[in-house]
Design a protein that fits this description.
Blueprint: H1 16-26, H2 34-37, H3 53-77, H4 96-158, H5 164-176, H6 179-184, H7 196-203, H8 218-222, H9 248-256
Helix pairs in contact: 4-5
Length: about 260
């Protein structure tokens, strides 16, 4: 006949029978005065979800407050001193060296956080700077494209109707014009909406302009003149003053001749 051995089941969570047995073993004699046991019992049950940390800690707090008030009233009833004397010295649980290490660790953590925030701000600043730079490059590309379109349109429209010099003048005028100058003609300012023909009639035509404006011609090469007659004399103010009067002896010699 075979005997089947059943495994023993050990209850590890909320084993009330084992708790009661341990309590009976360590229970003090109820006849002892309270000053010998200093035991305080919470007279209310605690029913709270163990997974709810906030409510669980709140119930612990209420239990501690109730026990402290009850113990204080019992100590006053039995004339048991419970306040700390003024000259009482309580040694700290942690040494000064240990607290210094904790303080240094907190400072290091604060420095690491501050450095991380600074690097984050630098990355954001570089990102913003790159965006601004890209916008400027795009704006330059748009301006260059617009200028090329204007030059191609001018060449296509006026190349056959104008000779080389006049085309260069028109080309330089087109390059110098800007949207701001175009808008200036609409504001009513004098001279801002003048056409090229009116400007030539008012101010004259200066001839060649551009990089070949100072190029020598056959006439300038054969001319050996001293240049412009409107130059001021070197070292003077441009006008000669009245001649100085001769001395008496020189005037007498001149009259004797």
């Amino acid at each position: 006949m075979s005997l089947e051995i059943l495994p023993a089941v050990v209850l590890l969570i909320n084993n009330e029978a084992a708790l009661d047995r341990v309590r009976e073993n360590i229970q003090l004699d109820p006849s002892l005065p309270w000053t010998e046991t200093l035991a305080v019992t919470y007279d209310k049950g605690i029913e709270v979800d163990v997974n709810d940390d906030l409510k669980r800690e709140l119930e612990f707090y209420k239990q501690a407050i109730h026990g402290a008030n009850l113990a204080r009233s019992l100590a006053a009833k039995h004339q048991l001193p419970f306040t700390r004397p003024a000259d009482f010295y309580a040694e700290m649980v942690k040494s000064d060296a240990h607290m210094e290490r904790i303080r240094q660790r907190l400072l290091d953590e604060t420095a690491v956080i501050k450095k991380s925030e600074e690097k984050k701000r630098e990355r954001e600043g570089k990102k913003f700077g790159k965006q601004v730079q890209m916008e400027k490059l795009k704006e330059r590309e748009r301006a260059k494209k617009d200028m090329d379109d204007r030059i191609r349109g001018l060449k296509r429209k006026r190349k056959d109707a104008l000779d080389g010099d006049e085309f260069e003048v028109e080309l330089e005028d087109a390059l110098k014009e800007r949207p701001a100058k175009r808008q200036a003609g609409k504001t009513g300012k004098p001279g801002s909406s003048m056409s090229r023909t009116k400007r030539d009639a008012k101010f004259g035509f200066g001839g060649k302009v551009g990089r070949r404006a100072k190029q020598n011609t056959k006439e300038s090469t054969d001319s050996f003149g001293g240049g412009s007659q409107s130059r001021k004399p070197v070292g003077g103010k441009g006008k000669k003053g009245p001649a100085k009067r001769l001395g008496k002896s020189r005037r007498m010699r001149a009259s004797g001749k």
